[in-house]
TrEMBL record:
Keywords: Cytoplasm, GTP-binding, Hydrolase, Metal-binding, Nucleotide-binding, Ribosome biogenesis, RNA-binding, rRNA-binding, Zinc. It comes from Winogradskya consettensis. Monomer. Associates with 30S ribosomal subunit, binds 16S rRNA. GO terms for cellular component: cytoplasm. The gene is rsgA_2. This is Small ribosomal subunit biogenesis GTPase RsgA. Belongs to the TRAFAC class YlqF/YawG GTPase family. RsgA subfamily. It comes from the Bacteria. It is found in: Cytoplasm. Zn(2+) binds at residues 283, 288, 290, 296. Its EC number is 3.6.1.-. The lineage of its organism: Bacteria, Bacillati, Actinomycetota, Actinomycetes, Micromonosporales. GO terms for molecular function: GTP binding; GTPase activity; metal ion binding; rRNA binding.
Length: 343
């Protein structure tokens, strides 16, 4: 028998499930979703379930409606011993990125996590631009962001790197960890307690699967050696996976991602760049384009050295990306509305 409250089942979820509670249904949490089949943990144990027709039809309009690792779902058990996922219960938080197509659709990476840890290795040196992009995604999810500097044993002074990185992540905890020495693992376990879920987000070779094994206390995820020359690795986790941690709580391991497309993350972007957003509020004109206008606080900060050109260019690049993708999304939704049959 499983303990769903240890994975986050609470009164809010119970209330959302109540209208669907019948003799042939039950609630559970998705451990893994792969090609139309979900592995779900219920009060009776682990079950395999296919997707109901209504979910497949909904996914035609928006693939983000499909169940993902971390989702709480309603299962239905049929007389012929089939089990289907009938409904995805409302998500508290959701980590979603833009797909590679031109329609600006979203791909759910994880759901119902309490904390999103941006995992960045200390070897080679952390990539500030990548951290900023992933932080914007983490803020937009609605969960608590965290930066985990993995492989801290490869750095002579990991705390110095953490202090430097904290300058571009105001208010976000930066935690160096090493699975080889055990440094920082106890601090990371604070985010994986009974009823809480930690999601790991980062590139391939960042050490996410090794961190999962360290938190679980056993080898539950396969790991591969990375190339020594550039610190990059092949994809170890090819799917999103919810791993149960002894004593309660869970870790969501996501695939290593080479690039993350931002969708409609203007709110998350402004929180990831809180310093830049605050400067922009002090410009003389509310519609300042920050490109030579008089009284521009951004240009003054660049001239004084309070804002680095690299961070400013990163902010501009990501805002342009969000603006373009938001426009594409608006066009797609308008087209869908025009094609919708009138009653």
């Amino acid at each position: 028998m499983s303990d769903l409250p240890a994975l986050g089942w609470d009164a809010t979820l119970a209330s959302a499930y109540r209208p669907f509670d019948r003799s042939d249904t039950c609630a559970g949490r998705v451990l893994r979703a792969d090609r139309g089949v979900c592995t779900v943990l219920t009060d009776d144990g682990v079950e395999r379930a296919s997707l109901a027709g209504n979910l497949l039809l909904s996914a035609v309009g928006d693939p983000a409606d499909l169940p993902c690792a971390g989702d709480w779902v309603v299962l239905r058990r049929w007389p012929d011993r089939r089990t289907t996922v009938e409904l995805v219960l409302p998500r508290r938080t959701v980590l979603i990125r833009r797909t590679a197509d031109k329609d600006s659709r979203g791909q759910v990476l994880a759901a119902n996590m309490d904390t999103v840890a941006v995992v960045e290795p200390l070897h080679p040196m952390p990539d500030d631009a990548r951290v900023e992009r992933l932080l914007a995604l983490a803020f937009e999810s609605g969960a608590q962001p965290l930066i985990v500097l993995s492989k801290s044993d490869t750095s002579g002074d990991p705390q110095a790197v953490a202090r430097q990185l904290s300058k571009i992540a105001s208010g976000v905890r930066v935690q160096p960890v090493s699975t080889r020495t055990g440094a920082g693992i106890a601090e990371l376990r604070e985010y994986v307690t009974a009823g809480r879920t930690l999601a790991l987000l980062g590139r391939s070779g960042a050490g996410k699967s090794t961190l999962v094994n360290a938190l679980a206390g056993t080898d539950v995820m396969g790991v591969q050696e990375i190339r020594r020359a550039d610190g990059k690795g092949r994809h170890t986790t090819a799917y999103r996976n919810l791993v149960l941690i002894p004593g309660g709580g869970a870790v969501l391991d996501t695939p290593g991602i080479r690039g993350v497309g931002l969708l409609d993350t203007a709110g998350g972007l402004d929180r990831a760049f809180a310093d830049v957003a605050e400067l922009a509020e002090h410009c003389r004109f509310s519609d300042c384009g920050h490109d030579g206008e008089p009284g521009c606080a951004i240009q003054d900060a660049l001239a004084d050295g309070d804002l680095t050109p690299r961070r400013w260019e990163s902010w501009r690049k990501l805002h342009r990306e969000v603006a373009v993708e938001s426009g594409r999304r608006a066009v797609r939704l308008a087209g869908a509305n025009r094609r919708r049959p009138r009653r």
